[in-house]
Amino acid sequence: MTNDQWTAVQRALSLAQGAHDGQMRKYSTGRPYIQHPIRVSLRIAQSWPEDTSAICAALLHDTLEDTQLTAAAIESVCGPVVLDWVMWLTNPSKAHSSLSRERRKQIDREHAARMPYMIQRIKLVDRCDNLREMTTADAEFKTIYLAESKALLAVIGGADKVLAAEYQEAMDMVALSLPPAGETMLGREAGA
Question: For 31, which DSSP code?
Fold first, then answer.
């Protein structure tokens, strides 16, 4: 990575840190939210160390939908290419909060199907990291998230076979954490 590329990544990291300041991950043990985009960007950097736009977009991928950071600020600091990638990574369903979750996720999958393959790779890593953080989620939500994840993998898994395998492994880990059908997390039959 050149000095200019490293500087670009540092600017994106600083922007992401400021945007996610004070946020905590929802389904982890109170870890700072910024750890998630950092993990996503590090995984992207492992496979594509010279793709500065991908690394920067990975750092900023949740900022437009989960923070007050604006598109103008991203473009000003990181340029139009990174902004374009972050916009691709932003779930369009956020603008349709009155729709059912099922319909919103369908909108997001349709959007993901149109993503350029490199952006689909970032999405695969993002979702894989989310799956790995599901340890404290309740069984009902894990079940819903697994079904949504499986449907998303069917749409974008072709972008990268290695990442798709990691994603499947993360889904398998979540599935193994679920109680057997008919049991609660306490081991008793549901409804008993």
Answer: -
Burial classification of residue 116, based on how many CB atoms lie within 10 Å of its CB (0-12 exposed, 13-18 middle, 19 or more buried): exposed
Could you report the per-residue pLDDT of 40-99, keeping only the tens digit for each? 999 999 999 999 999 999 999 999 999 999 999 999 999 999 999 999 999 999 889 899
pTM over 0.85: yes
The string of pLDDT tens digits covering residues 25-35 is 887 667 899 99
Instruction: Give residue for tokens 């949740």.
Output: 62
| End position of a domain, from candidates 66, 90, 114 | 90
Residues 76 and 149 reside in one and the same domain: no
Number of domains the chain is built from? 2
- Asked whether residue 188 falls in the same domain as residue 126, the answer is yes
Residues 86 and 120 in one domain: no
Token pair of 162, please? 């290695």
Alpha carbons 183 and 45: distance in angstroms, whole number: 41
Residues belonging to the active site: 65-66
Three-class SS of residue 133?
Answer: coil
Q: How far apart are CA 53 and CA 3, in angstroms?
A: 14
Residues in the chain: 192
Instruction: Check: CB of residue 117 under 8 Å from CB of residue 159.
Output: yes
Domain that holds residue 167: 92-192
